[in-house]
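Trying the structure run again after the queue cleared.
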Amino acid sequence: MHATFLGVSTILLSDGETSLMTDGFFSRPPLLRSMLRPLRPDGAAVDRALTRTRTDRLAAVLVAHSHYDHAMDSPTVAERTGAELVGSPSTRHIAEGYGFAMDRFRTIQV
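Done. Tokens:
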């Protein structure tokens, strides 16, 4: 198993065949902007991170909880890598708001 820390709470885990990611978060808006403007994923930042890590396929993106620095980019990462998205009911609401395919979402209860 190989783990790569990608910042904040994002970790890429791979055994060389199957890869998972925790809390895909790459947009990282400045604090002031995050307080004054609506938060939205930065698709270009997600693409740069996936390209930099050579990540084109993930089995799953696991979201620890639904704060923006864990959940905001996760549906975008899952969409771009064909991954299942795994999270709480509130993470499911975020994914639904993005138009993420709900047949690829797995709800966990804590």
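The mean pLDDT is 95. Worth checking whether this holds up in the mutant runs.
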